[in-house]
Amino acid sequence: AMRSAARFELLLAAGSLALALLLGGATGHYPASLLVLTLLYACRHVYHLLRLTYRLARHHRFNAPYPRGAWGEVYQAIAQYQQRTRKRKKRQVRFASRFREAALSVPDALVIMDKNQTVEWANPAAASLLNIQWPRDDGKNLTGLVQQPGLDDIIEAADYARPIDFSPNHNRALRLTVRVTPFGEKKRQRLLVGRDITKIHALNTIRRDFVANASHELRTPLTVIMGFVENLLHNAATPAAHRRPLNLMQSQALRMRTIIDDLLTLSRLEMDDKPDVVQPVDVPEVIRSVLHEAASIAAGKYRIESDIDEELFVLGNEKELHSAFSNLVLNALKHTPERTRISVRWAEHPQGLHFTVQDTGGGIAAEHLPRLTERFYRVDKARSRASGGTGLGLAIVKHVLNRHEAELLISSRIGHGSTFVCRFPDELALSRRQLRHADGAPTASPSVTEGKPHRTAAAR
């Protein structure tokens, strides 16, 4: 078609030239004849150009028949483009219709915000969950409609992995988890997704209360049993044949008491998102205390190295941090073979404050890493029970770090050992010099600044 159009234009131009020569020969005015035929040829192009402009300006459809020559090719190309555009628009309309139907039927609250964080659209579920109705609340600021501390921060960060849980003011019986993700031009718009987790929250509360109550009730009978076992072991009248079973009973009773204590610790940590007591913590002193405990357990079978920044403090709860650091160090001792080198470091990094425990043991397979902070999860069940571990240590570490807005990071390679990193945000950093230059010892207990919840990475 392209070649035939070009051939037609060439023939038309050649015919115009031949006609001009014939007229010039007949009249004896060659220049005038050539000028007249050239103007006629040009008028044809001007006519089609004006016609094209007129039809484009009025959004007319370009249908056959088309003019011959190059202009026919132009008209046909525009007609094909219009046809593709119409099909694309129909697909978009169908897709938008299906998307709208899906969004309207989703049980989660969906709210679209513009770059100024004002409501552009909301689905029906947003009315019952967040008390946001569209189009009633169109153009209103979201944080004015949902007054919740920390909501501004997650909208600004737009990190879908960092949710915020709360009970909305219009219905305190509900429990929601809200996530925000960016989209649109330059990722300046926001999509808020609110999910009803009331049943899940209630089940977690029941589970936590049951574990706490059961653990608490088990302590008294266990204490009685341990007391009688100890009396029998120290009684000279106890037959020698009974001493081995009694020693085994005492060992298992001690293990059960450790599990109960850990369960009670976990239940207490789950009660609140923040520590009850927050103050400057002398982390170097805490680490030295942990290493002193570890040295008595290692008994020369492990090589423990330390690199501690003596000037670096942190704002937090000393008892909880001691528990987290102790669990990580003792975990390395319990779950690595003898003659393993264990390095403990406390230092400031560009990404935050790092407490690192690194060992040269056998390492952990990658498929185990995502589940290591689950309660009672064990990589090697037989070896873990033999070492006396409860399977709750890393779960306690994760909860302590979450309460300090920190995260647990783990890397491991089979045959090369594992590395555990507790990463604290820079906002919690303090220096010994700061505290020394303050007016005496700090008397006030500054509270942790409310910040954005951190995602807990895959942990050991």
Q: What's the helix count?
A: 13
What's the alpha carbon Rg, rounded to whole Å?
38 Å
The amount of beta strand, in percent, is: 15-25%
Stretches where pLDDT is under 50 for at least 5 consecutive residues are: 441-460
Q: Write down how many β-strands occur, each being a DSSP E stretch of 2 or more residues.
A: 13
Helical coverage, percent range: 40-55%
Q: Kindly state the mean pLDDT as a whole number?
A: 83
Largest sheet: 5 strands, antiparallel
Main sheet strand line-up:
2-1-5-4-3
Shape: elongated
Distance between the termini: 69 Å
Q: Helix/strand/pairing class, anyone?
A: alpha+beta
Order of helices and strands: HHHEEHHHEEEHHEHEEHEEHHEEEH
Keywords:
5-stranded mixed beta sheet; single chain; alpha+beta; elongated; 460 residues; disordered C terminus; 13 helices
Description:
This protein has 460 residues and is of the alpha+beta class. Helices cover 50% and strands 17% of the residues. It has 13 helices and 13 strands. The strands form three sheets. It has a five-stranded antiparallel sheet. It is elongated. The C terminus is likely disordered.
